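ok so I'm stuck.
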Amino acid sequence: MERIKIAFLHNWQIYCMIAVCQFFLLYSCRAQGQDCPQWGEKYTRNMVSFETGLPTTFNVETGKNVKWSVSIGSNGYATPVISNGKVLIGANNADERDLRHKGDRGTLLCLNESDGSLCWQLVVPRIEGDRHNDWPMIGICSPPTIEDNRVYLLTNRSEVLCLDLNGQSDGNDGTFQGEGWYMAPSGEFAYEVTLKDADIIWSYDLKLELGLCPHDSPHASILLDGDFLYLNTCNGVNYKHLETNALNAPSLIALDKKTGRLVAKDNEHFGPRIFHSSWSSPSMGEVNGQKLIFFAGPDGILYAFKALSQTTSHEQVQSFNKVWQFDCDPKSPKKNIHDYLNNRVEGPSISFGMPVFYKNRVYLTVGGDIWWGKKIAWLKCIDATKKGDITDSGEIWSYQLEQHSASTPAISNGLIYVTDCGKNLQCIDVENGIPYWKHKLQMDSWSSAFVADKKVYVGSCGGDFWILEEGKTLKVLDSIKLDSPVHSTPVAAHGVLYISTMNRLYAIKR
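replied:
not stuck anymore, here's the structure
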């Protein structure tokens, strides 16, 4: 008996030592901070972070708590990502960092995390012809997704690129060897490839391969799961905004991350039902032991598809297997939808933000198109455990917002933070949709709120940036006037807050 007691005490001591080590390891990792390799929390897309030690105030004029800031040109709409000591953000070519590249281009900047200096840049010529396929002077809008030393990006030319995070510094890798021709506008000879240029591993042209019609500026945050890249294609209407030329092009696809080969696409025939474009990126969650892809279609319907098995054959293109669909606006018109163009009272609904998966539920903002549609919008909470057409049974609650919303929800400690175009940041109960408070911003907000370190960070089109205390009671910690409008989402990595305006990227550290 005594031996048993001694053995028990010995094992208990070992267990306690292991638990203590695990605690300190976890605390150490969180104290040191983590990378932010994609927009939103991995898979779920929730706009939250475990980062701590973030600032409650800063001043861009005096430099207080500003680690560094750099120009990103003009017309910046992209959210930055941070990985392996580098910060990547879409921009335009207004700064002409490389004198070989004159005039309007889309660019992806790779900066040193330590000081914001340039490591390399991807320079992408504009699509010639119809400006609605690639809007002039708009920077690359899509945030990259990074895994190890690979960068996955949707460019302004509607190409999915796989890039080397190290650029040309470790040689010209991959099967793609035409970087010099890629950088050169039509009619020009290939440029010399330098150490400041991007290294393209492979390329997949959505326009060429799928025959789609991009509209304005492509915007997709690529979701990575195993060997597959999931993304919305940004197929949209033509320049008249009255029809979709690419009626048969998919709105959701999956590519092989190693080769760029098309693996799967939707079979929903969205074309005739696209009111503007397919700008909402997919999310993922596990429900009843099965991985699902959640996709807010361009028709105002939220879809759940089975995620691809990692053993899926790459030889034949698969069709996504639909598990359920939920019409977010069942009373909206389903036919002749373009007759409602510029109607601010009636019309179809679409989504701009991403669906967020949280505890077997999906949270999504949906409503009229910001530019051409009705003003009404909602925050929806949908049961993700159901099957089939769940329009009548899947809604757990719905909360009406003041106006259009392009926001991806941020969910933390039982609360949802969401912005809208009524100049509001709202705090809502995640369980029942009951509002706790509403905070007025200076102007409409096209960006999403971001929650980290018990604080809520948010900006608006007025260039005002707000820091609030997380919780059921409204408490403003600080407001800062920035140089230009904020259209992207704040992010954090390694104890640093990153805020992108139309003109500059700021790294803020307490």
